[in-house]
Design brief:
Blueprint lengths: L1 E6 L9 H18 L3 E4 L13 H9 L6 E8 L5 H14 L4 E6 L6 H7 L10 H13 L23 E6 L2 H10 L3 E3 L1 H4 L4 H10 L12 E10 L2 H19 L9 H5 L5 H13 L1 E4 H15 L3 E5 L5 H14 L9
Parallel strand pairs: 1-2, 1-9, 2-3, 3-4, 4-5, 5-6, 6-7, 7-8, 7-9
Helix pairs in contact: 1-13, 2-3, 3-5, 6-8, 9-11, 12-13
């Protein structure tokens, strides 16, 4: 089982949003040294919490400051863009880090409807074109001909090269699973986004309907989980308080920068909110590294998946670094030499 990272460039209260981008770059360099398999960054727009809005730019910075870890998107929200432009961007990225670039694709807007319209005035029409856009993108990324009679058949994505980005389908519903299966692509379910709801069904649908492709003769299924490890259970729960506090507001449709743990712990909560926090603490993958790793392994075994990506939020950046360091040791990852 491969162990990878998803980072969302989360804004922290009391710090400029640009620091979240710089923290992502520093974390990627550390995870490269620790031996993680992939480092993916997300795409969100007009989001007060998740400020990574241009993954292709961030991927370029990470790719040129790392040596061995695969780097990619989780994902590019394709309905916002022309497939040719995305193919060109990722062909350039592959030229910067040949054979290390991943292109994760999603259909969701990564934003609200108004923001999606601001990004693309045809936003309401593009999701219906998603399978066709994926087909075109795959051809351009791999330097293969588009369908016979396609109006853009003579158009090519540059620069060409001996390697190409690895395309993944991402999702938090059955739709992405079906598209990934149809095109014979690797598929990753956003377990952390739905708290696992719909995950087993989507993975089963993906495997059942998988059509083998030349690059991927067998299905390659993964999940992304939220997890945080520390030296002690108490320390882990302390840092998790920021995330739990944020989730209370998210349940109301309010998205804020991540508050420090002492602020979250200093709030007065009503009975319903207290019960919700206790539920979050009971179900979250939070605790000592042996406990968190064991629970991740149990989940992976139960779902029979090939790869787990871990996303971790903490107001204290040192807590995130500690969590990933402890888990790398627990999973027995082989460290890489720094560039």
């Amino acid at each position: 089982m491969k162990i990878s990272i998803l980072d969302q460039s989360v804004a922290a209260a009391g710090r400029p949003q640009g620091q979240a981008i710089r923290d992502t770059l520093a974390l990627a360099q550390m995870c490269d040294r620790l031996g993680y398999h992939r480092f993916w960054v997300s795409e969100h727009h007009s989001h007060p919490t998740i400020v990574g809005s241009a993954p292709e730019i961030l991927i370029a910075a990470i790719a040129t400051h790392t040596t061995g870890i695969r780097v990619g998107s989780a994902g590019v929200m394709l309905p916002h863009y022309a497939p040719l432009k995305v193919a060109e961007q990722f062909r350039v990225l592959d030229a910067l880090a040949p054979g290390r670039i991943d292109l994760g694709l999603g259909r969701a807007p990564g934003s609200d409807g108004r923001t999606a319209f601001a990004l693309n005035p045809l936003a309401n029409e593009r999701p219906a074109q998603f399978p066709n856009d994926v087909a075109d993108l795959m051809a351009w990324v791999h330097g293969e001909p588009l369908a016979e009679g396609h109006p853009f058949r003579v158009v090519e994505a540059m620069p060409k090269g001996d390697t190409a980005p690895e395309i993944w389908m991402l999702g938090s519903s059955s739709y992405g699973a079906q598209v990934g299966a149809h095109f014979g692509l690797p598929y990753s379910f956003a377990w952390f986004f739905t708290d696992g709801r719909g995950g087993p069904e989507a993975l089963d649908l993906y495997r059942t309907h998988y059509k083998p492709s030349a690059r991927h003769p067998k299905p390659n299924a993964g999940i992304c989980v939220w997890a945080l490890a520390a030296e002690t259970e108490e320390e882990a729960q302390y840092h998790f308080s920021s995330r739990a506090h944020w989730q209370l507001y998210r349940d109301r449709g309010v998205y804020l920068p991540l508050d420090p743990p002492e602020h979250a712990l200093g709030q007065e909560y009503g009975p319903a909110e207290t019960a919700r926090i206790e539920e979050l603490r009971r179900t979250a993958l939070v605790g000592t590294a042996p406990d968190v790793a064991a629970r991740i392994r149990e989940l992976a075994d139960r779902l029979a998946i090939d790869e787990v990506a871990i996303v971790t939020w903490a107001h204290d950046e040192r807590a995130r670094h500690t969590s990933y360091t402890l888990l790398a040791r627990e999973f027995g990852l082989a460290p890489r030499q720094a560039a």
